[in-house]
Design brief:
mainly alpha, Serine Threonine Protein Phosphatase 5, Tetratricopeptide repeat, 2 domains, 14 helices
Length: 262
């Protein structure tokens, strides 16, 4: 399941930029009208109000952001007629305009990431999620979605995905499968670091056995013996984590373990 599919409907609260100039009052009034319409589910009307707010004060970042959110909601509504892809493009433009006026706008980065990911623009989506994480450091959600994105659409990003699952859990995220991944990742890191901490010294024979066991894993994996391959990697980390051979490949082995346990 594409991570963006479930996330497009999220409406994330955001602080309004303080407008100035002679049209500030009219802009805020239109913004309030738009928010009320959106809360009633009247997103077409909300877009009209937010557009009025933008005309009254082109620097009001929240008006662009909320217009983008309403356009996403219209895109998700099956009753919407016309080219719904155009609504996505305009939503991206709105989120970009909000960011242009407030580069710290974490909500706008997050929502733009979700729309971009829904269009298959995963690299751009991941970049936006990293910005959302930067500007919303206590919010677990961007960590969850970038972890899922790394899992599904990026090669060799399993380690990074696991780190984001761990951060998601540390910040209080409640998704059960994500928390399970975080616990497994922490345990793997603990196992990988336990042997050297105990002061074990790797012999030449240990190094050779580690290399041999790695070769055995490759054979099992190539033959589709996933369960036996998983057991082999676990043994490699448990019994030979103190070797130079394994320590130089810890990230690789942890990523393999994570993939095999899916």
């Amino acid at each position: 399941m594409r991570p963006a599919a479930a996330a497009l409907a999220l409406l994330l609260s955001a602080c309004a930029s303080a407008p100035d100039g002679p049209d500030a009052e009219a802009a805020l009034a239109a913004l309030a009208d738009g928010r009320e319409a959106a809360e009633r589910g009247e997103h077409g009307r909300a877009v009209e109000h937010f557009s009025e707010a933008v005309r009254e004060n082109p620097e009001l970042a929240e008006a662009y952001f909320r217009r983008g959110v309403s356009r996403v909601q219209m895109r998700l509504d099956r009753a919407t007629e016309g080219d719904v892809r155009l609504l996505e493009e305009r939503a991206i433009e709105d989120f970009s305009a909000a960011i242009g006026r407030n580069p710290l706008y974490g909500d706008a980065y997050f929502n733009r990431a979700m729309v971009r990911a829904s269009r298959g623009q995963y690299r751009l989506g991941a970049q936006d999620l990293l910005e959302a994480i930067k500007h919303r450091p206590q919010d677990p959600e961007p960590h969850l979605w970038i972890a899922k994105m790394y899992d599904e659409y990026f090669e060799d990003m399993q380690v990074a995905a696991n780190e984001h699952y761990e951060k998601y859990a540390d910040l209080g995220g409640r998704d059960p499968s994500a928390r399970d991944r975080a616990r497994a990742w922490k345990e793997l890191k603990r196992q990988a670091g336990a042997a050297p901490a105990a002061g074990r010294t790797a012999s030449a024979e240990d190094e050779k056995k580690a290399e041999t066991l790695h070769g055995e894993f490759k054979r099992l994996f190539a033959e589709g013996e996933r369960k036996k391959a998983l057991e082999t990697v676990e043994r490699l980390l448990r019994d030979y984590g103190h070797t130079v051979y394994v320590q130089g490949r810890t990230r690789e082995f942890n990523a393999l373990l994570n993939a095999l346990r899916k």
